[in-house]
Amino acid sequence: MSKCCKPETPLPPPEKKTACCQKESGLPSESQGDRQASAVASCCPLASGAAEKRAAKPDVMLWGSLALVAVFYSNAAFFEEAVLPFDAYGVIIHAVFELINSMWWGVAIGILMLSLLSKIPREFVISILGRKGGVTGICRATAAGVLLDLCSHGILMVGSKLYERGATVGQVMAFLIASPWNSFSLTLILVALIGLPWTVVFILFSMLIAIVAGLIFDALVARGVLPKNPNRFDLPSDFSFTREAKAGLKTTRFSPEFLFSMLLDGIKDSRMVLRWLLFGVLLAALIRAFIPEDIFHQWFGPSFIGLLLTMFAATVIEVCSEGSTPIAADLVTRAAAPGNGFAFLMTGVSTDYTEIMVMKDVSRSWKIALFLPLLTVPQVVIVSWLMNLVGG
Fold this sequence. Notes:
Blueprint: H1 2-5, H2 34-41, H3 45-56, H4 60-78, H5 88-119, H6 122-129, H7 134-147, H8 152-164, H9 169-178, H10 184-194, H11 196-222, H12 241-251, H13 256-269, H14 271-290, H15 293-299, H16 304-316, H17 321-333, H18 338-350, H19 353-363, H20 366-391
């Protein structure tokens, strides 16, 4: 009726979607994850509600592990006399106390490195590691892992950030495999414990395994077996690291607000690693409480069975690099099994569940995470067995 009594009212034109609500074809220049979610949420109401719902959901593993670690640590620090030192609870709280005291500085430096990397454009990271990856890029990533003076948990934070900044999967894996116990300070400790010759052998073979594994990872990505890093991009042909770095430093104001925001970004980006690290501390404390340490020294001789048991123990026990170095030295000196000592150090990297789960979360791929032990453990077994034959 209204249609014939009055002229038809034209329908309003369809509302145009803003560019930020559409699916982006390019990659974000900054880090993904929280920053990307917040950027989309700022202009899309639906995305904003979803982001708020995700942000409101508490991280049970992070906060639960943090609460237990805080309770156990405070008990050991302030109420040690009230706990019997040889009962299970006493062993647990002392293990947590020792592990936190040994690894806090590495975690703190790792957070600072993340803070710095969060402000460095991806172009600079890719320029340093190599534009096209390959052997040169893998070797650069391996050298960076060896030279950085961080523990295994601090280096894990930096490795996850490198992936986000566009490094190839092979470069990230080479960086992680080469780095955890090859820091300058731990190398000096290892020289004091097992001598210079074996220390040099350990470093060279760990670098070799890292390079081989990195090349295999990149080859599998090229063949489509493993997914590519979605943050990967090509540098402009005229990009100059020195020129761009000078220009960036001139325009940067190192104000207190800038430094605070940089530190805050590092803390936010480290949460993914901290949740597994704190959980690993609790698990290691439980293992120490219920599995006597002297059993490992009796079973881990220079035999093939001893080598397999060593690798199993390194897989199960979540030990920071500071804790694994003395144990590995005992395997070299007391058990006369240098290969077992090398396997304990390397398998703790290759099969460490913290590292595997963090790589799964960072890459969002179970295949990439599980290929880490798949490609490195066979190399470690062969090299360690040869070391036992020569020096056992």
